[in-house]
Amino acid sequence: MRLTRGKLLAGAAVAALLALTGCGGGSDAKDGTAEETTVPATATGSLEELAAEVKCKPSIQTDADEIRQGVCKISTGKFILATFATDRGQREWLDGAKDYGGSYLVGAKWVAVGDQKMVTTLRGRLGGTLEQGTSHGAGHSGHQGG
Description:
With 146 residues, the protein is an alpha+beta fold. The protein is built from 5 helices and 6 strands; from the N terminus they run H-H-H-E-E-E-H-E-E-H-E.
């Protein structure tokens, strides 16, 4: 398996986000009422247009032909917003990123990455589909059995 630039960027993005938001396993939705029934049509547009929908000015971290990525900060916290040139590029990025855990809001050639509460909040503005990364658990003692 060849390690692509996109997968490296995905790993770096998710690792940076987990450092910003903490690596907790997340918590269950508290009420799951209005948030789930008021999901708008999935937004489309550039990184800056999507960020404007949630009233943030992204701090651009990656500006390449195949991916643009920035960190956004809003009143409820921080998240990473990435846009992609192709659907395939988005799926490859997402498949690699999910190995690092986290919560993902997925739209048409864009992904927002944050904790569960953040992506649920963003979904109320951007629409999209919620996806979860692989949970590796926390608190391993490092004990090796033998």
